[in-house]
Amino acid sequence: MNIKNFWMIVVVGLVSLCTISCGSDDEDKGGTNENPITAKDPEGTIIANLTSGAKYRDGILLRPNSEKMTYLYMDGSNNLTICDYNGNVGLSCGIVCVGQVNGLSSITSNSYKEYAGKSAAIPGYGYIFYDRGNQYYRLFVENYIENTTGGIMGATIKYQQWNSNSQ
Predict the structure, then answer these.
(1) Are 145 and 155 in contact (CB under 8 A)?
(2) Is 65 helix (H, G, I), strand (E, B) or coil?
(3) CB-based contacts of 104: which residues, under 8 Å, 6+ apart?
(4) Using one digit for the tens of pLDDT, what is the confidence trace for 60-109?
(5) How far apart are CA 95 and CA 90, in angstroms?
(6) pLDDT tens across 144-156, in order?
(7) Among candidate residues 163, 164, 166, 154, the one with its CA nearest the CA of residue 58
(8) How many whole angstroms separate alpha carbon 131 and alpha carbon 75?
(9) Dist. CA 67–CA 41, nearest whole Å
(10) CB-based contacts of 165, cutoff 8 Å, min separation 6
(11) b/e per residue 42-51 (b: at least 16 CB within 10 A)
């Protein structure tokens, strides 16, 4: 066997190994290649980016032009935080984590009695919050926004006004 044939066999062998090792095992495990967060967004969904460490007035203003103005923002510890117009966290407003869900439309009931002023923002998790006018909202954290070194700079969220009694 000459050297040319030897290298041809080596190259064919390496290409075969790469092709086999790059295959997907998802079908073997009963999974799919689809993103698990594919639930269709309900009509009226708002998509926004929250910046970690922002001041509350840089967040999302709910009920503008009202004495019941409420802000939703992401604090420096990556918590979803809700406060009144003066920055008082959890004063006549609150948020609760409902756990891991498949999207905004998966949040279908509100049986929660205890709300806090803040809750950790975790991708793939759903939340219910209410503003100072007792208007309820459902919220879904889609993903983190990361910098080039992998640090969390914020989060992409989806939310909508919600009548929890009609679901």
Answers:
(1) yes
(2) coil
(3) 39, 41, 42, 45, 126, 138, 139, 140, 158, 159, 160
(4) 888 877 788 899 999 999 999 999 888 889 888 899 999 999 999 999 88
(5) 8
(6) 999 999 999 999 9
(7) 154
(8) 18
(9) 30
(10) none
(11) eeeeeeeebe
